[in-house]
Amino acid sequence: MNETGSKEQDYLAVDISCLNPETLRATLVSSSGSHCEVWRTNKRTRANADNERYHEFVIKYPTSTQSSAEIAILVRDYQRLKNTLEDIIPSALFFVTQVDGEQNVCVIADAVNIWFNIANPQNHEEAIELLRDSPRACDQLRRFVKAARQWRASDNARLIDLYGLDNLVMDRNHEIRYLDSFFVFFYEDMLDMFQEETDNLLEKQIKLSVERLNYLEELVKASSP
């Protein structure tokens, strides 16, 4: 959704050097978050005259310019997610490119058809029923919670970002998907750097992410046989 709460049908409204925006019809699906803008588009593939399909994908780029070192961290964190959570993380390609004339990073990732916000406590009863009816989704959520707990308890502690409204969802195939690609971890010890001048937004993001992780752990327990 854009800032007015509606979808926009348009050509890609940004100059990304590795893409040709004039030939790429796209829909702006997110611009209200603090990390990036997300556009959704598709590409028609044709193996032969009788085999034609559309591949849906999203194009993401950060709202702030990232240095080479910062891009390397983004790629490393995404790869950590993908290596550990595998099918839960949509496949994505990172490109170091020019975005509106400045060096930045662009991601092209498989699109996910969001069906249910699994991390919203208001959906508690329905979530339990869905997970009980979907053993694969329940197993995926169990693996997600286990990995998130291990990352948070490690020597280099990091908390997975669950602050975004649609970071963790169930898709139309009743599988769990984690959709964030940029800045996917919070480092709680950073709050100690703001003892005199508290970073209220960071504190809020961390607090809500912890609450949602606790909630997801409770969902797993309530949904398991």
Give your account of this protein's structure:
With 225 residues, this protein is α+β, with helices and mostly antiparallel strands. It folds into two domains: 8-110, Phosphorylase Kinase, domain 1 (2-Layer Sandwich); 114-223, no CATH class. It has four helices and eleven strands. The strands form three sheets. The protein has a six-stranded antiparallel sheet. Strands 7-9-10 form a three-stranded antiparallel sheet. Strands 8-11 form a two-stranded antiparallel sheet. Strand 3 (36-48) and strand 4 (51-62) form a beta hairpin. Helix 2 (124-133) crosses helix 4 (200-223) and helix 3 (135-153) crosses helix 4. The longest helix has 24 residues, at 200-223. The model is unreliable at 1-8 (pLDDT under 50).
Q: What can be said about the biggest beta sheet?
A: 6 strands, antiparallel
The helix count comes to 4
Q: Hey, roughly how much beta strand do the residues contain?
A: 25-35%
Helix content: 25-40%
Task: Report, as a whole number of angstroms, the end-to-end distance.
Answer: 37 Å
What best-fitting shape do the alpha-carbon axes yield? Answer: globular
Number of strands: 11
The helix-and-strand class reads alpha+beta
The value of Rg in angstroms is 19 Å
Spans of at least 5 consecutive residues with low confidence: 1-8
Strand order of the largest sheet: 1-2-3-4-6-5
Number of domains: 2
Q: Secondary-structure element order, as H and E?
A: EEEEHEEEHHEEEEH
